[in-house]
Design brief:
With 305 residues, the chain is α/β, with parallel strands linked by helices. Helix content is 32%, strand content 14%. Strands 2-1-3-8-7-4-5-6 form an eight-stranded parallel β-sheet, sandwiched between helices. The structure holds manganese (II) ion (MN).
Length: 305
């Protein structure tokens, strides 16, 4: 079941938003089934898209217009099934189309459990994939609240797929999760190591194959920067250092798909929504530079006023 979207990412129109020619596609998935603390991720995609209409199309970081590559916004996907496994199958099916056309798929959630859908689609098309996780929580529980599909289990399900992972910003987990990380030697930059993340990140990426899937849980950020998430944790990532890590990721690896999850908007406080929208545009700018190089940008065929 899907409804027409009422706002495109960045408010793009015409050729810049044309799905036939876009280099990247945004798939909004307002999916919330297992959130455990503060709810509201179901409103995340809409809030991000609304905030994105206030983002400047020109990005001084890239001295150009990342949106010039074309960014389509797909109809929001609302899984029809009440069954969690079947709902994830629906998300996986929706993710296949953009990936088959070899464009960057950006899934916007929604709770973190949805990652399994686009990730399985990417794995079936690309095979050997690494998964880079930005998150406050390890999400490595075998089950949580009686279900293996909880947002608190998503990275365990990723390990079940046989995919190598690397995590940045972890600072909240159970002892069993910490032991699993140690036993399986999962590469992690902990929350308390974020100040040195730039010097540790390359070694972290070396553990992964050339193609990666990026899953970005916004609770990775410090809540002073982004409070609008279900389970905020102090001591998280700050803005410019995080943009630099993402730039390094998109340079060192071929990011084939990504998701941005767990934005739970706070009514009357749009700053978090805007942070998430800007983060996404930065990732798209990094992606475009990888596929296009650093040639000077032509002017956009639209007014910026
Ligand atoms: Mn998470």
């Amino acid at each position: 079941m899907s409804a027409p979207t009422d706002v495109n990412f960045l408010g793009l129109e015409g050729a810049l938003a044309d799905d036939a020619t876009a280099a990247a596609s945004i798939l909004p998935v307002p999916f919330e089934r297992t959130t455990s603390y503060r709810k509201g991720t179901v409103h995340g995609p809409r809030a991000l898209l609304q905030a994105s209409t206030q983002v400047e199309l020109f990005d001084p970081h890239f001295d150009g217009y990342p949106c010039a590559m074309g960014i389509s916004t797909l109809a929001p996907l609302v899984p029809a099934s009440d069954d969690m496994a079947a709902a994830l199958d629906e998300i996986e099916a929706a993710a296949r189309g953009p990936l088959e056309r070899r464009r960057l798929l950006v899934t916007v959630g929604g709770e973190h459990s949805l990652t399994l859908g686009p990730l399985r689609a990417a794995q079936s098309l690309f095979g050997d994939l690494g998964v880079v996780q930005f998150d406050a929580h390890a999400d490595l529980r075998q089950t949580y609240d009686g279900t293996p599909f909880s947002h608190a289990c998503i990275m365990r399900r990723v390990l079940d797929l046989g995919l190598p992972t690397a995590a940045v910003g972890l600072r909240s987990l159970s002892r069993a999760e910490a032991e699993l990380i140690r036993r399986r030697r999962l590469p992690v930059i902990w929350g308390h190591q974020l100040a040195d993340a730039a010097s540790r990140f390359d070694a972290l990426l070396e553990a992964l194959p050339p193609r990666v899937y990026l899953t970005f849980d916004v609770d990775y950020f410090d809540p002073s920067l982004l409070p609008a998430t279900g389970t905020p944790e102090p001591g998280g990532g700050s803005w410019h250092p995080t943009l630099a890590l993402l730039e390094r990721l998109f340079t060192a690896k071929e990011v084939v798909a990504m998701d941005l999850v767990e934005l739970a908007p706070i009514p009357g406080q749009p700053a978090s929504d805007f942070v998430a929208a800007r983060l996404l545009y930065h990732c798209l700018g990094c992606y475009r530079r990888r596929i296009r190089g650093t040639a000077a940008d032509p002017d956009l065929p639209v007014s910026e006023d």
